[in-house]
Amino acid sequence: MTAAELLSLPIGIQVALASGCAAYFVAYSGLRGHHRTIDIAFITLVFSLVATATFALTPAWGVIGKCLVAFISSIATAVIWRKWGRSIVRFLLRLANISWSDDDPSALATLSANSTFPVTQIAVLLDDGTWLRCDDTRQFNDAPYGPCLLGPNGDVALYLTHEEQPGQQAKSLETVRDPNLGDRITYVPASRIRRITFRHKKKA
Q1: Mean pLDDT of the chain, nearest integer
Q2: 124, 154 Cβ separation under 8 angstroms
Q3: Is the pLDDT of residue 122 over 70?
Q4: Core-most of 56, 102, 104, 204, by most CB within 10 Å?
Q5: pLDDT tens, 34-47?
Q6: Which pairs count as long-range contacts for 102-110, CB under 8 Å and 24+ apart, including other chains?
Q7: Across-strand partners of 200?
Q8: Residue from 10, 26, 4 nearest 115 by CA
């Protein structure tokens, strides 16, 4: 279907499709890499149904008002699903001994998608035996990309506070934060990484 054909559809269908697509991106941010086209289509359809129902049931607030409420309701559903729904469903499946898999593409993807237990410390072991660490990621919560970035393919970006080369004492890096130039972030490609360790702490 072309863009012109999509724009010729009734406004309710256009809103449903746009809302469903946006909701899908919100609900599966960082977890979309393993989704097939059919997965995307049906997940989008589920969120579109929320927008369709809201659009149909919204009082006569005018077309713009109905569209806005439908879009917001679909996005809100996606946020609820991402933050609580997925965890509840996984818990119920484990409780019933149906499945212990979380269906994420990798354990790293699960960690990077986590928002309940933020990363408080991260250490990366390179292929030459060097350890790169950020001993307290919380001090970088206000940094542009803080506290760290975990890529879906295994790469990492962290605010490097300590470096420990093989057989040497750990070296503290004091120039990570600069009041004039900003915060220095270090990118580590997946091909150089042998191990990643994290500490997590539940939000108070």
Answers
A1: 88
A2: no
A3: yes
A4: 104
A5: 788 999 999 999 99
A6: 104/31, 105/31, 105/33, 105/34, 105/152, 106/152, 106/154, 108/150, 108/152, 108/154, 108/196, 109/30, 109/31, 109/33, 109/152
A7: 119
A8: 26
